[in-house]
Amino acid sequence: MTAINSPRLDSDRPPPARFAFDRFTWKEIAHLLTNLPTAIAGFVYVLFMIALGGGLAVTVVGLPLLAVGLLGARQLGRAERARARGLLGVRVEEPSPLFVKRDGSFFTRLWMSLKDPVGWRTMLYGFIRLPWGVLTFSLVLPSLFVLWPVLPFIARGLTNVDRAMVRGLLSPSDELERRIAELESDRGVVVDTAAADLRRIERDLHDGAQARLVALAMGLGLAKEKLLEDPDAAAVMVGEAHGEVKLALQELRDLARGIHPAVLTDRGLDAALSSIATRCTAPVKVHVDLAERPAEAIEGIAYFTVSELLQNVSKHAQARSASVEVWRSADRLLIRVADNGRGGARLDGGTGMAGLADRLGAVDGLFVLDSPVGGPTTVTAELPWRDRG
């Protein structure tokens, strides 16, 4: 998983206030003097949108207008963050974009817009800024002529309150906002993976079982024509068709196993992993230590992860032996697949490792690859347990 920086950096702290009027002090004074006009604009906007949207809430246009007002509040927040960044040196990340399901109904999209926490926090910021803007303007403007020597200290105290407001109301809500951004990214990975799997299934059906069944139908048609005039040839053709049926059934079973193996559904990970281990070119020792079964989705991801890793062992590792270990630690399912092959595997090496890492990351999992040149290779995967429903 990729680490995400904190929304507030230690380097955004200004130097200590001094009696001298340096550029930091002048910027702080400029921020305090512009508080009033920006606060008036923000307050008027918030008051207007709430009054208009709330007043018309009993009609069909009231709530949509309020949702539009929240979207506009996001733009006000963006402008205020830019002002604080330029004049106060406050560095905060931009909140994640509002996520609304495009395939949802109108009322679903409206409700998600009305629940936007970023928009509501910006509305609150715009509402409380008016009295603060009046206060700061009325204190700083006279101080320019009366309290000139101590103005840097007054400006620093007042702008520290501004910094706290920006960080508290206009910055992302830490873990929640970052998690939303991660889930939006992971959703794209899941969609792409599902689309790729559907294309693979379609290709396997078209090139495999479907083509074989078409040939089988043609063969049986010819056998039917020869049944009366040449029974022996017809019998040979029926025998060939019987063989084709067996091959088609085997291909369909293999395809079904690739979608979700019956042994996994019926007997769990221990039996399913032992089954795929027998198809590896190197001897594989399987050890599964689970007192109960995880959620079906997690169990399926674990199965296909081990399956793909063992395929890599067969195709690329040139290993003499391999091992698979699965166990539970607290609320996590852990998987370790190791081999004594040539090593040198990389996430960008074209062996599907990057795809596995993306799939696990999409369900809040982890994927760690340790494969020095010359071996051995060890892959450790971690998935959320999620009790079986």
Question: Which features characterize this protein?
Answer:
5-stranded mixed sheet; 9% strand; single chain; Single alpha-helices involved in coiled-coils or other helix-helix interfaces; 3 domains
Description:
This protein has 389 residues and is of the alpha+beta class. It has 3 domains: 10-172, no CATH class; 186-259, Single alpha-helices involved in coiled-coils or other helix-helix interfaces (Up-down Bundle), CATH 1.20.5; 262-384, Histidine kinase-like ATPase, C-terminal domain (Heat Shock Protein 90, 2-Layer Sandwich), CATH 3.30.565. The chain has 11 helices and 5 strands. Helix 2 packs across helix 4, helix 4 (117-143) packs antiparallel against helix 5 and helix 6 (174-226) crosses helix 11 (353-361). The longest helix is centred in the middle third of the chain and has 53 residues, at 174-226. The two termini are 27 Å apart.
